[in-house]
Specification:
Length: 387
């Protein structure tokens, strides 16, 4: 055996011994695997998102009337913006104040709407019938006076806007003759006619007011005809309690002045527009929707909001109106907001010259809600007046 061979065998034996020792060590102490961790508890399923509150609006006119219905629809949009996916709103326009309104309300309830707004006086009886048959639906009726367990009424003190417009009209007339296009002779409208006249008399005791009735809320051709008749009769400043911009546009064609009503109508005839007495329904609609969502809505309620609540305003006063008149309107508005000014405070005389309110007597809401007479200074006769 050569030296080289012996050396190789010894080296092989050495490495075999080392390998065997390593094997014995590995068998003697086995490396332990890490203990399995406890499984994380399954995440609780997210609570189901509540279904949105379905809200429906029934409009007496088209949404594009530029006045009454336009104002309601702006408030509907404000509800959508405020509450997002918590609500779903829909509307039906040009719903007549007739038996057909009942069909519409039943249909809206059947579609799953849980809050329904009816936006004109003539819906009162149809809504009462449907409310009685749909106890799980909340109904809100504009300008009415009958309530139920699931039916409220709401209104705006439009007479406040009418008075402020009158303050301007009394100053701007040159003929001392004011003209009013009236819609339907109910207390709401008669109250506005009288308030406009009282405001005008506060600026100009010599004014008289003429009225032409069209017996509809929205009928531009009739409104145009009525406005032209008043202008032909000497009126140089026109006011309205109708829903379209026809009166203002007719005034513009005759180079006379007029007011916007319910919404800002400046754009229809800027040169003739003295100001707009507007309604902001958003504060009420937002509150009512929030109450419904929070489970705080209650029936048999009546709400009548005005300048104080942000529901009534006079806007876009023409630059032609004297600064002192603007200041006077601002003071009236501030007084209405803080309660220091009252429009219906005696002495106020009826058309017959007898006191409707005695000196310092203040009309309550019951009195205001039942007005069926003209104040002194309004010409003509209230339709259907039995006197």
């Amino acid at each position: 055996m050569t030296l080289t061979t012996k050396r190789s065998l010894l080296k092989l034996a050495h490495w075999s011994t080392v390998a065997a020792a390593a094997a014995l060590v590995g068998c003697g102490k086995k490396e332990e695997a890490p203990a399995p961790q406890a499984a994380a508890p399954a995440a609780a399923p997210a609570p189901a998102k509540p279904a949105p509150l379905k809200i429906a609006f029934a409009y007496v006119g088209p949404v594009g009337d530029g006045g009454w219905t336009f104002a309601h629809d702006n408030a509907r949009k404000a509800v959508e913006k405020e509450f997002g996916d918590k609500v779903v709103t829909t509307f039906v326009e040009k719903v007549p104040e007739s038996a057909d309104a009942e069909r519409v309300f039943r249909d809206l309830a059947g579609q799953g709407n849980k809050l329904v707004f009816g936006t004109t006086f003539g819906y009162m009886e149809p809504m009462l019938k449907v409310a009685a048959d749909s106890p799980d639906v909340k109904f809100e009726h504009a300008t009415g006076y009958k309530t139920a367990a699931n039916l409220n009424t709401y209104d705006s003190r439009t007479y406040e806007g009418a008075y402020m417009a009158g303050v301007i009209a009394g100053k701007m007339t040159k003929t001392n003759t004011l003209g009013i296009v009236g819609s339907i002779p109910i207390p709401e409208v008669i109250r506005n006619i009288n308030s406009f006249t009282l405001g005008a008399q506060s600026s100009n005791p010599k004014v008289k007011t003429k009225v032409v009735w069209v017996n509809e809320w929205f009928n531009p051709p009739k409104e145009t005809e009525a406005a032209q008749s008043l202008i032909n009769g000497g009126a140089d400043v026109l006011f309205q309690n109708t829903d379209s911009s026809a009166v203002l546009q007719t005034a513009a064609k005759n180079k006379k002045f007029a007011f916007g009503w319910d919404s800002d109508m400046t754009a229809y005839a800027p040169e003739a527009h003295l100001a707009s007495a507007i309604i902001n329904w958003a504060p009420y609609y937002l509150k009512t929707t929030r109450d419904a969502l929070d489970g705080k809505w209650a029936g048999n309620q009546r709400s009548w909001w005005g300048v104080k609540e942000g529901a009534i305003d006079i806007v876009s006063i023409n630059d032609k109106v004297p600064a002192e008149t603007k200041d006077r309107v601002a003071k009236v508005k501030a007084g209405l907001a803080d309660g220091s000014f009252v429009i219906w405070k005696g002495p106020i005389l009826g058309q017959d010259g007898k006191p409707a309110l005695k000196k310092d007597e203040v009309a309550d809401d019951k009195f205001l809600g039942g007005i069926n007479f003209y104040v002194k200074g309004v010409e003509g006769k209230v339709p259907n007046d039995k006197k």
